[in-house]
Amino acid sequence: METIRTWMTNRWAVPAVSGALIVAALVILQIARIDIVGNLLMVAAAIVAGTHIVITAARALWARVIGIDLLVAVAAIGAVIIGQYWEAAAVTFLFAIGHALETATLNKTRSALAELVAVAPDIAITLRDGEQVEVPATAVILGETVLVKNGAKVPVDGEVIGGAGALDEASITGESMPAEKMAGDRVFAGTVARSGFLQVRATGVGADTTLARIIHRVEEAQDAKAKTQVFMDQFSAWYTPVILVLAIVAGLVTQDIVLALTLLVIGCPGALVISIPVSIVAGIGRAAKDGILIKGGEFLETSAKITAVAVDKTGTLTIGRPTVTDVVVLNPALTRADVLGWSGRAETGSEHPLSRAILDAARSEGLDVAGLPESTEPVPGKGIVVSTQGRRVLIGNPALLAQYSIIDTDAATQAATELAQAGRTPMIVVLDGTVAGVIGVADEVRADAARMVADLHAAGVKLVIMLTGDTPVVAHAVASVTGVDEVRASLLPEDKLAVVTGLQAEGYVVAMVGDGVNDAPALAAANIGVAMGAAGSAVAVETADIALMGDNLLKLPEAISLARRTVNTMRQNIAIALVTVTVLLLGVLLGGVTMTIGMLVHEASVLIVIVNAMRLLRRHERHERHEGHSEAHPPALGGLGRGVGLDEPGVHADDGDLRSATR
Predict the structure, then answer these.
(1) Concatenated DSSP letters of 461-516
(2) Is residue 351 pLDDT above 80, yes or no?
(3) Which of 69, 157, 290, 312 is catalytic?
(4) Cβ–Cβ contacts within 10 Å for residue 5, how many?
(5) Of 4, 209, 327, 521, which has fewest CB within 10 angstroms of its CB?
(6) Catalytic annotation on 368?
């Protein structure tokens, strides 16, 4: 009994039984000429295939919804009543087999989500009391050491504390090339070790891993409705009752019940209803496979309309790992070590990339920068004021020096200008009211920044604009390498917001790409907010309109291109559905289209719509050619350095502090 129940729940069981009964009925009717038996078999076939349709229609009516199933159910029951047994059996059989095919192909469009679920790790090998213990991945405790051997899946999010190896992170970032990992690097659950042996300290387990958050986000996104889909749902809500009324009126006027029932069948808006969601599911699924998380159908539609992209500089166009290139000493009583040492002590309380560059430089020269300042006061738009070891240190721009009445700044301003012209980000250092020197920091332009700008233009973006708090000299140096259309430099966070809203007022649909809190107002105001390198950020995964899981800049134009292709597919599907219904209606009214032919064409149109949407699951050829594109040597600017000035010259990612010495 259980076997029969299991078999009958299979999506192909109902059409298989119904089809067999129809074949048997045709044999008996055509060969044995036993009409009553043949007709009974046809009715049986209609009952087998139509029972589920009637139940679904009844449930929908109970919920006060007139759906497609009701049209088919009424048509089939009416056909049986008037003795059109073949039509009743054929319509319900075709509808059942069409439903099975739809389910199968729709499942295919959700393959990306299924693949993400499939890569979720089941087991983990942990070190407990010095012994290797195999436990379920969900049973790993935060802080435990997990062993990842060659060929194994990483079971947790964590930090490498020992060993080295290469991980395939395609399930997270969409990148096909394995990423080398060593002590201090982050790893993600669901990635696969391709070589080496890693010891990992667990920092995220179970539902608190990046993979789990991605799966959750993709599930929500694929179920979220686009504006066009909402409209189509509203349209079908009145369209279906209209078809029902039209069929009744046609039957009463013509006294032709078969015509009325045929109108019910061919008026089913199946392809129209499914045209939007199947495209969205496929588009978002394709994006997820490529390491691009799109928040939902509405954002997918908006992304297809993007005409302007505003990009932050640090961490977007540049690598975001600046290094100290110059230490200019301006106080004869001090040495290079003094200037760098006091700067390092002042920066120990900051996590800004510039601060890290100064600390790394000081430590590499053996300077003592241990401990924390007694006080750190950020001065928005100007710099920071720090008290450390009984001394007061100012690091920032001329405006900061003017605010604190620092005199004799001409030499500092000149040195800062020269550094900026060479592609550095300059910071003036003041010790106890006297200018000590100027530190120059440089950051490398990303190897694929110029390709990203070119690809954005190819994807239909009209304007690529760089928004930065850095000096105009440094900003234009980056622009000359990357090819951005416009540069807005020396911007405060509120200035970036004003630029974004100004572009929108000019009619642009704006995407803003940033990775710092200082970009938050502009990101929130933009039509689409894009987060780079979101794999390690739970907040970015959950809140960004588009989250690029890796640091590959080419994913941004890829996301926009995919959005445009998805929306085009939606439009094609709508056209296919409307043309099919129109042609069938004309065919019925003019004669020649029967109930069976109408259902056959209807189901064919549904499958065509689904197959058309499934084309989105294929990776686009242009992006396949660009996969793995890189340059051996990233572009370098400035006669003395490798890179260009860092965005927000001293803009702390957490406090919006601006420190450019030439601002």
Answers:
(1) --EEEEE-SS-HHHHHHHHHHH--SEEE-S--HHHHHHHHHHHHHTT--EEEEE-S
(2) no
(3) 312
(4) 8
(5) 4
(6) no
